[in-house]
Amino acid sequence: LLSLLFAVRVCIQQQCNEDIQSLCKELKIQLQHEQRIEEKEEGSFLPKLGHSIPKELHYMLDTDINHIFRPQEWVGYEEAEENFIWAIVLYPVQEQNGAVPEPIMKRYLIQYNEQDDEGKTVPAIDLYKFITIITAEGQELVLVDDTNSNTIVTQPCDSQKLKEMKRKICQELLLLWKLPSKEEKKKAIRRMYLKYHPDKAKPDERGVYEDAFKFMLRQIDRLESGLSIEDPDEETMPDVEEIHESSSWTQHYRQWNTYVPMHSWSRGNRGRSERGTSWGHFNFFSFQTETSPVEADRWLRQAWSDCKVMQLLLRTNSCLASCQVIFLAHEVIEKALKAGMYKLVGLNPRSLVSHELYSHAQAICSQRIWTEPSISLTEIAINMSPYYSNSRFPNKHPLPKAPVDVYDQNEAKKAALYAEMVIKFINEIVE
Question: What is the pLDDT of residue 301?
Answer without folding.
Answer: 98
